[in-house]
Amino acid sequence: MKIAVLSPISWRTPPRSYGPWEQVSSNIAEGLVENGVDVTLFATADSITKGKLESVAEHSWSENPEIDPKVFECLHISNLMEQAGKFDLIHNNFDFLPLTYSRLIKTPVVTTIHGFSSKKILPVYKKYNSTNFYVSISNSDRSPELDYTATVYNGINTDDFTFCFEPKDYLLFFGRIHPEKGTSESIQIAKKSGRKLIISGIIQHQEYFDSLIKPFINDEDIVYVGNSGPKERDKLMGEAYALLHPIGFNEPFGLSVAESMLCGTPVIAFNKGSMPELIIDGKTGFLVNNTGSAVDAVNNIKSVNRIYCREHAASKFSRQKMIEGYLEVYKKVVQKGYTKK
Fold this sequence. Notes:
Elements: E1 2-6, H1 20-34, E2 38-42, E3 52-54, H2 69-81, E4 89-92, E5 109-113, H3 122-127, E6 133-136, E7 150-151, E8 171-174, H4 183-193, E9 197-200, H5 206-213, E10 222-224, H6 230-239, E11 242-245, H7 255-262, E12 267-270, H8 275-278, E13 285-288, H9 291-299, H10 306-317, H11 319-335
Helix pairs in contact: 1-11, 4-9, 7-10
């Protein structure tokens, strides 16, 4: 089976630091290669893969201001679609735009929906609902207006995350700095629980950072370390007492939650979106509804078995587990002549 994996070009695949969709695209491509599948990754030219690489853009548009995002995204997607006949299946990780080509080609398209940025994009998904194959990354992130072929949880290369049995005392916030991700709430939780907080992530909302985050940063109990790469991420997560994830929106998945548990580090998260699907309350962390309950959870974190956290994450969110799920989807779509109703 020849598979084309279409990754976004906002960042390199895999990303140097931030870039969740590119990271998942990489995990899919590399996992398929390890399982003997003939894979061509469509990504930026500086991307890294053990499969074949096809590219139009030399670098990602986020890392090169000379690149016009719309122009190169169109060139990038069309580069794959004009070669669609070479592949048995296209695995789209580029949101809704590639769907607009899907009725012009004969190759089936499986689209992983990595969340809905807005209800305004739903008309595109609805238009191609009858002829495309949608995969959700959590059961909570399904739209009642769409049909789905499967839910496949995002999978992570477990070798990239080191289990840490004896953590340090600090709490960790790891993610983009944006109101919906709860950076400010994490500061409140840390201060009320009397613990140091390390913040790592890309600043996506400068005003929010300047007004509600920056005033508290003192390099003592509130520390901002910037946007961490893979090695720094592994160390930060492994040595953390707990990961704080007080989200203010229905998060579709939450890679950092699964990554933290792979390191053995429990997660304290607001009970929204996919969090109940990732976290076993009381066993791999705590699902709470406000900062006060989160502080109580910090005080009870010693009751969580770090070994169990690792085992749980490895059993549900490993790259191999994800690949097994996608191979089942591919088999249904390609080998069994599966058609939408």
